[in-house]
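Sample 3 of the quickstart, ligand glutamine:
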Amino acid sequence: YTSVELTQHFLNRIKNLDSQYNSFVSITEEIALAQAKEADERLAKGDANPLCGIPIAHKDIFCTNGVRTACGSKMLDNFIPPYDATVVENLRAAGAVMLGKVNMDEFAMGSSNETSFYGPVKNPWDTDCVPGGSSGGSAAAVAGLLAPGATATDTGGSIRQPASHCGLTGIKPTYGRVSRWGMIAFASSLDQAGVLTRSAEDAAIMLSAMASYDDKDSTCINQPTEDYTATLGNSLDGLRIGVPKEYFGEGLRPEIAEHVRTALKWYEGQGATLVDIELPHTHLSVPAYYVIAPAECSANLSRFDGVRYGHRCDDPKDLNDLYKRTRAEGFGDEVKRRILVGTYALSAGYYDAYYRKAMKVRRLIKQDFDQAFEKVDVIMGPTTTAPAFKFGAKGNDPVAMYLEDIYTIATNLAGLPGLSIPCGLVDEKPVGLQVIGKAFDEGKLLNVAHQYQ
Ligand code: GLN
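Result:
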């Protein structure tokens, strides 16, 4: 097939089927077909990049030149960036074709895609259920075969948890591996871009193109990029797998524990050894995250003031009225809750009690991982405690929603790479196996995932 044919195939599927899922917020048909035509010319000239001509979708958190980037929010419903995010630019340079922009929780805050201004996204496995979040649009688009792969972001689990709920492979790289430039900021010390795909091989192809050193992001690490496809076939003989007892505690559906144990046995059969490990501060990761992430979000979202871009209220009386009404109208409830919590945690007199304390806990969580990785090469456990839940099931209970990320958040606090791959069905819905690695061990994680698939 030519890229134009392939692109047209996916555009048709999006047009015919996405009304069932609500995964796309913009379909960039003209751009897609023009890019596909260009890719076909590159292919004819012998371009060997495996991504050249492959259509993909971008999470609507990545700025796209001339194409609305709303980040799931009414605040940015009218925002058309004049530049591309580095991630978008890198994938474009590899020859990937942009099909459109996909839905997400507002400003990436959520675990179910129910906080989007553009309405909830449905899980293609069961449309009464959520796809997970915040990258729910990316996950539903790939699981519904509306795109072969999609970009996504993960601040506390937003790639791995939707991967688990939609039966996909999702990888969150090491903090600093992929540029955050042009990616709308939620919690800057935790945010990291990655991908959602149908296999580890696809993820390796996309991530190899996305990752780069970028001096426009001061936290991007200057380290050579790798071809992650080169090591996919490596043997697992001698691999030491850490199994943290804290990831198999109360609250985990027993069927998920069983699926994970079956996968662990399979790895043992490949010559890996299982090592019982402890990550003793795991229970503090959700509380620490819900101080740190809101604190950073309250600072990051202060830029949405109705002055420079985005939503502006009608007829403001004065500057304060402009700020107040613009933000009251533009932000949804979950975003407001986070801004309030974060502003409180950072306020004079409370900073030491909350923010500084949370940062100390973050250090302890990082040390847990450092100690474990002296003895093991990777850590494995479940991605979520349960399969995808029904719409509204956690709507009135933010804490129940926050616990969706109980196994994924610690990885972000420690800055480590993590991925999720499907490892079985529970209630006829997919569940994920999580693999956590040492910093910059993305190649190893993808190798471990690829061998299982
Ligand atoms: N669910 C978590 C939150 O709501 C994580 C979101 C994310 O990773 N972007 O903050």
